[in-house]
Design goal:
Structural class: alpha+beta
Distance between the termini: 29 Å
Radius of gyration: 22 Å
Oligomer: single chain
Mean pLDDT: 94
Largest sheet: 7 strands, antiparallel
């Protein structure tokens, strides 16, 4: 259910994310004279404590930074253990793999898949190194100071917010069927009374406070080469995991150049693979050749463009160190071919052949014009559900993004980064910065980017109105979920009837969680910022 909110106007700096206490942590840093990266790190570290179903210290991170002159991209995703092979996965799953996981959606969710829980989908966590690397290049305040609020909330406790409590409860219910020594610590940390904390209840995680303090004082060295690393690899060795000291010691973030497509008179920026940002860029590149004023046909074309973007991404996106993505994916020629393939009827997604050539999102901006788009996640709620004893954090299950087909570029293997769903976005206009944006939520993310960008550029909505606009969600085949408001609004019934006539199988979503949660900050031409935050959950924005 959408809820209209006014946008926030801030003259000097702003923070927007999915939990109010994390917004307050980032805003406090800006008020102390920190820059947008400092604020992003305070916000991100606090989110691991106040929104643990969605992200944790044991997850991955991606970021785009506008430094005042140009964009920088950070890929802080981890690689699989050196001992992880396709044969090992098949041996441990009786040769069948697991059932496809819904979170990936579309053309990705076909055939046997990686298991979603336990040690097999665990990859090296990139979050601690990502925090350190962002600070090393751009930070201004002392690194340890930026984690102070996160440590305080973990040590002293905090009241759990409403949307987080609901997600937590669903995850704890799902945990009940998991057995094995690797899962033993989960209940003690995240369900100490045999259940998830309720909204407003105070929850503490002193073990996480200890971990965050070690990361803060050592600039993450304790995580990859010290006490945390030793505990993590020992726990893996005792309970069936594959992580070794060498896997942690060799981890490194990668600075990358963001990639873009033109959309009208704007440029939309995403990070290159192994993330799925290409799916959003492909869809927007296709749509750039269509008229947004074309009534119900416009929504149909958005859906079909998203399908094409996903089909190409799922076919070609993998770890670029092992399987470089075809350079022709974003060329005008390939986009024109994909655009020409969009018909007047709903179609099943088919990958093109170019010529060779569960998550939290936050954004920050400061008085100097620096802006940050950052996303971090353990993937499905609480990731692998493997929690390190004595350290209070869950490990991600990003290996679920690998494929089991032997000839696929994203096939599971040793020391590889899997296909990633989390994608930060950034918008410019004729080279000038507009601002950071993101919509979290697995398979929803690229299509959320498409809908937010179109609402901003085509409909001239402010970021809050764009985030509050009714959404749609395509998952697979011709199935389409829509928000009730899309039908209830002016012309909604005729719009849905037209989509059904075109072959779309339209249904109203039973709740809003499938549509993701977004944030955006746009820089105003006359100075300051206008900010939007997700109205479907606990999203908040702060400025000064």
């Amino acid at each position: 259910m959408t809820h209209p909110r006014p946008p926030l106007y801030a003259p000097r700096g702003a923070v927007a994310t999915s939990q109010p206490l994390a917004v307050a942590a980032g805003l406090a840093v800006l008020r102390r004279g920190g820059n947008a990266v400092d604020a992003a790190l305070a916000t991100a570290s606090t989110l691991t404590v106040v929104q643990p179903p969605s992200n944790d210290i044991g997850g991955d991170l991606f970021a785009i930074v506008w430094d005042g002159e140009r964009l920088h991209g950070l890929n802080a995703s981890g690689r699989s253990p050196a001992g992880l092979t396709r044969d090992l996965v098949l041996a441990r799953t009786d040769g069948r793999g697991a059932e496809p996981a819904d979170a990936l959606g579309g053309a990705q969710a076909v055939g046997p898949a990686m298991p979603a829980r336990g040690w097999l989908p665990v990859t090296v966590p990139g979050v601690p190194a990502g925090w350190r690397d962002l600070h090393e290049r751009f930070g201004s305040l002392p690194f340890a100071d930026l984690l102070a609020d996160a440590i305080g909330y973990a040590e002293q406790g905090h009241p759990v917010s409403t949307a987080t409590a609901a997600a937590w409860s669903r995850a704890v219910a799902g945990h009940a069927g998991l057995t094995g020594p690797e899962y033993a610590e989960f209940g003690r940390v995240f369900a100490p009374d045999g259940r998830a904390p309720r909204a407003g209840e105070r929850w503490r995680n002193p073990d996480a406070a200890r971990t965050l303090r070690l990361i803060a004082d050592s600039r993450a060295e304790e995580f990859y080469r010290g006490r945390i690393a030793a505990a993590l690899t020992d726990h893996a060795a005792r309970t069936g995991g594959l992580l070794t000291p060498a896997d942690l010691e060799t981890h490194a973030s990668v600075w990358v150049d963001p990639v873009s497509v033109r959309y009208r008179d704007h440029e939309v920026w995403e990070l290159p693979p192994n993330g799925q940002g290409l799916a959003a860029l492909l869809a927007l590149g296709i749509l750039d050749g269509f008229d947004p004023a074309d009534g119900s046909r416009w929504l149909h074309r958005q859906i079909e463009a998203v399908k094409a973007g996903f089909a190409d991404a799922h076919a070609h996106v993998a770890d670029p160190d092992h399987a470089p993505v075809p350079s022709g994916l974003l060329t005008p020629e390939h986009l024109a071919r994909r655009r020409a393939a969009v018909t007047e009827a709903a179609a099943d997604p088919v990958a093109g052949t170019p010529e060779r050539g569960g998550t939290v999102y936050l954004c920050t901006a400061d008085q100097s014009g620096m802006m940050v788009s950052l996303i971090q996640s353990t993937y499905l709620a609480f990731g692998s559900h493997v929690v390190l004893p004595g350290y209070g954090f869950a490990l991600q299950n990003r290996g679920l993004g690998f494929r089991l087909e032997a000839d696929h570029p994203n096939v599971v293997g040793p020391a590889k980064r899997p296909y990633h769903t989390i994608i930060p976005g950034f918008l410019t206009r004729q080279g000038a910065p507009v601002g950071p944006f993101g919509v979290m939520g697995g398979h929803m993310q690229p299509q959320g980017h498409v809908q937010l960008v179109s609402a901003t550029v085509d409909a001239d909505l402010d970021p809050q109105a764009a985030l509050g606009a009714p959404r749609w969600y395509w998952h697979a085949g011709r199935s389409l979920l829509v928000e009730e408001e899309l039908i209830a609004g002016p012309g909604g019934a005729a719009l849905i009837a037209d989509l059904r006539d075109r072959g779309h199988q339209v249904a109203v979503a039973p709740d809003s969680t499938v549509f993701g949660y977004g944030q955006a900050i746009w820089r105003r031409a006359d100075g300051g910022y206008v900010v939007g935050s997700e109205p479907r959950g606990d999203g908040a924005a702060g400025g000064f």
